[in-house]
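Justification of resources, computational component.

The compute hours requested in this renewal are based largely on the per-chain cost of generating structure records like the one below. Each record pairs the submitted sequence with a full structure-token output. That output is archived, and it is also reused by downstream analysis tasks.
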Amino acid sequence: MQGAPLRLTLVAIVLLYLAHALPLYFFNVAIPAILRTQGVDLRWIGMLSLLYLPWAFKFIWAPLVDRYFIARLGRRRTWLIFTQLAVIAGVTALALTGVEHGLWPFILLGFWISTFAATQDIAIDGYAVEAFPASQYSIASTAQSIGVAFGSLLGGAGSLWLYELYGWQPALLSLAGLITLTLLALRVVNDAEQSDNAFLARYKPSLGRVFSRPEIRRLLVVIVIYRVVEAPAMAMLNPMLIDANWSLGSVGLLFSVFGAGVGLLAAISGGWLVKRDGAVRWLLGAGWLRTAAYGLLGAALLAGWLNTWTLSAAVLAILAIRYLAMTALYAHFMQHCSRQQAGTDFTVLVCFELLVYFLGAAVSGFLAKPLGYGGFFVLLCLLSGVSVFLSQRLMRPAIAPVYTSCVSNK
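The structure output for this chain reads:
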């Protein structure tokens, strides 16, 4: 363990991922509902999707985050301090303005927050890879999932709850205050000694170095095959419940509260399983569980079993399997990151994964409408089985736990 004891570093990872997830889930979960209650046109609410552009394209400037820093602060600490302060400033400004000054200032401030939160994520990912020995990547991935789960709960459901009770400004200022508290994690991040300017002068992080590695190119193919099936399912869970006459409040409670709780348990269990058996084994295991869950849900829908308990159990099972899969997938990503440009490597993999996810989600409605929800999930069950089989063929050499590929100086 470099710099700080393992437990402190794990706490820091949880807090850092919480910090970057808070604004992400605020815009993803809370803002659409809040704006709609204020009578904002659905077309403007739809434009909120523009705020995700920095997350999809952050790989473009990821090499700059790996390359430039203030030596006295450290390679990761420099960017963590800068981006976190920028996010806090943006959220505070948003609290003081709201939508009363027009939607364009609102969107510009949202874009500011999203851009710096995405940049912060590059530094956090790089720190997570560098701060742990390769044998502990499963634990680091679990800490990532826990931080994101809490961010989903507090940034989404928590912000909505505060808004309903106290209004816009108290809700946003509370969010800014919570992000400010996570600055305490930076006391643990002390990588100044590991930030060797002389070495970085010889080694220039770049996107070309990422794509020149055959194992990365193979992993990108796996991402397409494995993740493209999951996105349509996740995109249709909310509409499925609404069409089953669930209220918005009930849907929010299931996803943001119970879903986050199940996700935490799945992430913790997943970290232990990945550490014991290896990331690839449980990535594939989660894939087969996913296949079974889609098949059972599809069969239940075709049979007309639309009661609350059946749908709740199905959704929570799918969410738990997703957290298990993401814990294993991110641990696998970390195993393929070079320490010389960990932020760039991890960001490229995550951005590619998000792009595949967005594209898969985009076609979900075109499949669900003609097939119905039952037929839709049966189809996804079949496609998921094929995707896991192909992924297993591609990742066969890595079935056993391997913790060495990412740490050699390439």
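The chain has a mean pLDDT of 84. The domain at 207-410 is CATH 1.20.1250.20 (Growth Hormone; Chain: A;).
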